[in-house]
Design brief:
The chain is of the alpha+beta class. It folds into 2 domains: 140 residues, no CATH class; 159 residues, Heat Shock Protein 90 (2-Layer Sandwich), CATH 3.30.565.10. It has 10 helices and 7 strands. Strands 2-4-5-7-6 form a 5-stranded mixed sheet, with helices on one face. Strands 1-3 form a two-stranded antiparallel sheet. A hairpin with a 2-residue loop joins β6 and β7. The longest helix is centred in the middle third of the chain and has 72 residues. The radius of gyration is 38 Å and the shape is rod-shaped. The two termini are 31 Å apart.
């Protein structure tokens, strides 16, 4: 039974129960069952119909909080109409019963008061229901807007990273075409494989650590063609972390940052170390590269690559403490903590 059917069932049950109580009360007051039941059914049918009309009005117009007195005005007006219709209807039905007609006239004020209380209650309850429904819809709309805004920002961050890598790779291919055409062809194939792996992946999409490392391997193969024997990498991965989940394409900008500050500022071979391990229930990945303290000290911050990753982690997990950096013994270490939600 859905929500609307439950509400309808409760309303019908309330109407039937109150009709029975009113009929018993009138019979107890000395009227016959015919008069008692007729009075109760007619009175509550008219009252129920006017309560339904209030709900219909509220469906199309809900006064704001500063105009809630409108509900009382509606209830008072409809209560007056309700009493007039009840007296007119029952007066026609029992026009020959003088004692009942006198009772009907004497209870007009009582019927008005009861009708006002019931209609006011229905009006307030209906207004509250529609108000909460509107608030819920507004919150859902706001959540959708926030989600779209977050996805747009993630996409923008990603788009600012990819062209830089693509242009560098194309320049390297251009340089290899004449001197080492076979390497140029290999690099084109590797570049194709890398970008094919990135297509269709959303920034909020998560993959296993092993899948992410495979995509990272394609990236490093391209970079090794660019930098030759100078670039060396090693990966240490705790076996239990293979199935851990990580946002797709998260590591490539971090490793690119390590290559930038390692190979550009240091002469000779450069070793990029990648280590993945479990920290509690979460996944921690640390990337370490050498750096020259004299050249890097003049640069501020950690570069756009890491700042974009920090922003992306905040958008995905709502935390600012998931990326940390450390400089020690001419080593630059970047650590990512990836929460593992169930």
């Amino acid at each position: 039974m859905n929500r609307s059917r439950k509400i309808a069932f409760l309303e019908i049950s309330w109407w039937f129960t109150w009709t029975c109580l009113q009929a018993f009360a009138l019979n107890f007051a000395g009227f016959s069952w015919k008069i008692s039941i007729t009075d109760a059914v007619v009175s509550n049918f008219i009252l129920g119909w006017e309560g339904y009309s209030i709900i219909l009005m509220l469906k199309f117009y809900q006064p704001d909080k500063s105009k809630l007195y409108y509900l009382l005005l509606w209830s008072a007006a409809l209560s007056g109409i309700c009493v007039l219709v009840i007296e007119f209807s029952l007066g026609l039905i029992f026009e020959s019963n003088t004692s009942y007609l006198m009772f009907l006239d004497n209870t007009a004020l009582l019927r008005f008061g009861f009708s006002f209380l019931m209609l006011a209650f229905i009006a307030v309850l209906g207004w509250t229901w529609f108000y909460l429904q509107t608030q819920q819809k507004d919150e859902l709309r706001k959540a959708d807007v926030d989600k779209l805004s977050k996805e747009a920002e993630l996409y923008s961050l990603r788009q600012q990273l990819q062209p830089h890598f693509l242009f560098n790779s194309l320049n390297s291919i251009n340089a290899l075409i004449i001197t080492e055409p076979q390497k140029a062809r290999n690099m084109v194939q590797q570049l194709s494989d890398f970008f094919r792996g990135t297509l269709g992946r959303q920034e909020s999409h998560k993959v296993t650590l092993s899948e992410e490392l495979e995509q990272l391997r394609l990236y490093l193969e391209i970079e090794k063609v660019r930098f030759g024997h100078r670039l060396k990498t090693e990966v240490f991965m705790d076996e239990k972390t293979i199935g851990y989940m990580i946002p797709s394409l998260l590591l490539q900008p971090v490793v690119e940052n390590a290559i930038k500050f390692g190979l550009y500022d240091v002469t000779g071979d450069v070793l990029i170390s990648i280590q993945a391990e479990a920290v509690g229930n979460d996944l921690q990945i640390c990337i370490e590269n050498p750096y020259d303290p004299e050249t890097i000290s003049s640069s501020k911050g950690v570069g756009f690559g890491l700042s974009s990753i920090e922003r992306r982690l905040y958008l995905l997990y709502g935390r600012n403490d998931l990326l940390t950096t450390e400089k020690k013994n001419s080593k630059f270490r970047t650590c990512l903590l990836i929460p593992q939600t169930s």
